[in-house]
Amino acid sequence: MKKTLLALGLSLSAVISSADDFSSVKVPQFDVPEIGGGVGLIDQQKEKMIGEKVFREVHHQFSTIQDPWLEDQFMLVFTRILSQTQLGQPIGLIVVKDPQINAFAVPGGLFALNSGMVTSSKSMDEVAGVMAHEIAHVAQRHYSRSQEAFKGQGLLALAGIVVGAVLASKADGELGGAMMLGTQAALLDRQLSYSRNQEREADRIGMQFMYSSGYNPESMADFFETMNRATSRLSFLPDFWLTHPLTTERMSEARLRANQFPHVPLSNNQQEFEIIKWYTSVISDQANEQQLKILAQQKKYAGLVALSAFYLRQGDFVQAQQQLDYAKQMNNEHNLVSLIQADIYLGQNKVDDAYQSIINKQRTMPENRALAYKLVEIYIRQNKPKDAEKMVNRFINKNNRDVSGWLLLQQAANLEKENPMRTINVLRNRAEAQYWSGDEENAIKSLLHAQRLAKGNNAMTAKVDARLKTMQDERKLKI
């Protein structure tokens, strides 16, 4: 099953450094095949449909991190690289709660990143390298081109291999193995040789995307060499490494290719990455108290913030506040500090204090999803459902796959005691949260219940019927 991951080129990360000023440097010219330009509307719609199906399946099969602040940090990097392509609005980015080093992408612009990839990285540039390589796979339609190579085997079958292969890398490999039975298994041998060329192409084009978006292509070659040295000291190979067997030739090619780019200065945002890295380790249960205490004792800002988050998750609000106060002495303006402070107050039922801790910053940055959603939590605690709904809808209208947003809307709708549509709205919002979390069956049940309650209200019935039909049709897709 490990070879399955190789078959689809599921993951490749790199060590990259950001650059703020590179516009005056001449970029080396590389030949990027114009694959995307010839994609028809029907093919694009099919890829979007498949991407959304896998989006739901990943949420259903894996433990994913639902943290707006962290999701948005990675989305900033993701969209920065994606802007270098001809791809449209992506399906989304999922952070999987898994310590293994892995990542994958599928048609339609869905990208998934294991928390272990982040906690194993030395800079955000490494994470950017993962994204650049995988975005290159999608931009060059590697999976779609594989469909042509396998005559009659659809993209959905290939998407099934994606999910099955990732599942197989976990402890319960039989579940992934079961998904590989039948016609999908016949694809593997032919795909292996094809994917080697795809991997080289993704290396090459990924580096170009990295440079164009301000990251250092040399870090991809650095990553190869770092991992090559690390594996010599291990009794096993990381799943990530097994998906991309590294040859001396490939390492040399990566270094030579990276050296063709002008040097990109190191980023001065290393502290920000350390915050992201250690916060990820806390919410993915990869850090222990002793590790974080050592960092905090060294007066590391990231360690203090992470230790505060650690105690917060344990419900120890006194210790969480103490560590946060130490962090505030160094920097009181970081958004994550404000979010943790609000959560400490909410945990102690100090709702008004939570409101005061976040409102000014949220008003200054109304486009910030994490701050907005924290304020929405406070509005819900203050019994202000209309304010909550208005704020969440701004984000849901831009991304209807936002599970966190739908859960907040469900809570807000439940507060509207005088609204005759209250129960129906709760069911509709719950259905969306269930659906995009991969619980398609219960999402449809929720809408069927809403449908029964909406009888007699033509406008509401029409809305429920239309959404129900879409869900039922999309559920028929099997991977």
UniProtKB/TrEMBL annotation:
The keyword Acetylation does not apply. The active site is at 134, 203 (proton donor). Binds 1 zinc ion per subunit. CDD domains: M48C_Oma1_like. Keywords: Hydrolase, Metal-binding, Metalloprotease, Periplasm, Protease, Signal, Zinc. This is Putative beta-barrel assembly-enhancing protease. Functions as both a chaperone and a metalloprotease. Maintains the integrity of the outer membrane by promoting either the assembly or the elimination of outer membrane proteins, depending on their folding state. GO terms for molecular function: metalloendopeptidase activity; zinc ion binding. GO terms for biological process: proteolysis involved in protein catabolic process. Its cofactor is Zn(2+). GO terms for cellular component: membrane; periplasmic space. Residues 92-255 form the Peptidase M48 domain. It is found in: Periplasm. Belongs to the peptidase M48 family. BepA subfamily. It comes from the Bacteria. Zn(2+) binds at residues 133, 137, 199. Its EC number is 3.4.-.-.
